[in-house]
From TrEMBL:
Location in or out of the cell: Cell membrane
Main location: membrane
SMART domains, sorted: AAA
UniProt-listed InterPro entries: AAA+_ATPase, ABC_carbohydrate_import_ATPase, ABC_transporter-like_ATP-bd, ABC_transporter-like_CS, P-loop_NTPase
Any coiled-coil regions, as ranges: none
Protein name according to UniProt: Heme ABC transporter ATP-binding protein
Topology of this chain in the membrane: Peripheral membrane protein
Domain ABC transporter per the UniProt entry, residue ranges: 5-240, 257-502
GO MF, one example: ATP hydrolysis activity
Membrane-spanning intervals of the chain: none
Upper lineage: Bacteria, Bacillati, Bacillota, Bacilli, Bacillales
Amino acid sequence: MEFVVEMLNIRKEFPGVVANDDITLQLRKGEIHALLGENGAGKSTLMSILFGMYQPDRGTIKVHGEQVKIANPNVANKLGIGMVHQHFKLVSNFTVTENIILGNELKKGFVLNIKEAARRIEELSKRYGLNVDPHAKIEDISVGMQQRVEILKMLYRDAEVLILDEPSAVLTPQEIEELGKIMLSLVAEGKSIILITHKLKEIKAVANRCTVIRRGKTIGTVDVATTSELKMAEMMVGRNVTFKVEKEESRPGDVILKLEGLTVNNNKNVPGLKDFNLEVRAGEIVGIAGVEGNGQTELVEAITGLRKAESGRIMLDGHDITRESIRGRIHKGIAHIPEDRQKRGLVLDYTLEENMILQVYNRKPFSKRGILDKGAIRKYASGILESFDVRSGKGPLSVSRSLSGGNQQKAIIGREIELDPGLLIAVQPTRGLDVGSIEYIHKRLIAHRDRGKAVLLISLELDEVLNVSDRIAVLNNGELIGVVKASETNENDIGAMMAGVKIGGDQ
Ligand SMILES: Nc1ncnc2c1ncn2[C@@H]1O[C@H](COP(=O)(O)OP(=O)(O)OP(=O)(O)O)[C@@H](O)[C@H]1O
């Protein structure tokens, strides 16, 4: 069997944590090889080693059977290895072509010929079914398209081995399906792919083999066709998992959040949310279903105060908060798990404990007469990190940037739930989380509801909206299409409503 890349017995230690402990991964030519593991298991570290961003402490890397030293990403590129990161590295006011040739101009003998580059990009785009316009500006194209630009960047540099780090985390369900087709066309042309993903369905749909790692160690490599999703999940977590969400019928109480005729402009200064009405009661979870970009951002930002309402009213506990400041709303009991954890969720250069008290540092017991009580802060932060199983090298003292993406997300969720808010707004709360953590977060959202609090859940994962919510409000083109009980609907009906078809009445 021909291996294009072999990573043998790789070890990598960071202060306080062994991220990779004797990991072996062998990539066959022309296969899609999934890399599965819990949050913080060591996947990104392993791939960063393959891409030359970190040096392993021990172990061997072979490319086409020959031992190599990948000192930096340029060496990786030369060896035919390319990587698409979770956070894209594109210049937003440059065109697709300019972004793709960026970096290449430093090479010896490079002659700038944009026309020729654009022609080649177009050709590659056609060949692999990417459908990218080489002249479009990055800021004008969707996230899905931007990801394809990243893929094109690798192809333009003749990469043979493509590493995709959680590529579907930022995509809509339709874009995920298209990405699957693109991956299949890439391997059909002889490329080999390492795919990091938490989505078992996706592994089943496209991957040939799957290597599972847990807490830095290889658990095994399996053939995907003959291994069930449940089996892979259990290998990863090391215990039985259920995909079902257990919950009792909700017992809604008083109205906590009431939106009346809310109209909110989008970034282009036209209404992104139009004349929107909704109630969320104590003791219930209301899910918002909709294709991305149909008013969800405007809705959340208006409630949290990040964006102003053009007209209409936002009522919290019977009080009008439409003009209230962001901080005022937090004090009145609104907590927010934001969509973009790196931009709005955490101050990445702060430690975890500093991040855990962002909203409460000036209250007792954390601050007395203007002086911070370090002991009280540490105790509070440690409690959250333990309860939400946030794994990091130095616990509360870890710099937030050093945490794996999934663990950053768990820390934010823990911080917001710990505030015990009357209204919890959870936007894509489980994006990037492994199945064990998803199970846990769902339980915590339901427990919050069961304590008589209101939860507004915004998610692009239809399964999540259907399983966790009590009622579902469907958005299409900024308008409320309808509100249905989760127990009385199904994926097809919600899908039709998301496309703008009105089914069922207002509940
Ligand atoms: N630069 C770093 N400094 C210190 N610790 C780090 C660094 N990078 C990663 N770690 C730690 O190494 C471990 C593995 O992290 P890694 O990002 O590889 O996990 P992952 O499997 O990719 O997780 P996720 O699914 O959440 O993205 C984590 O405990 C993380 O906190």
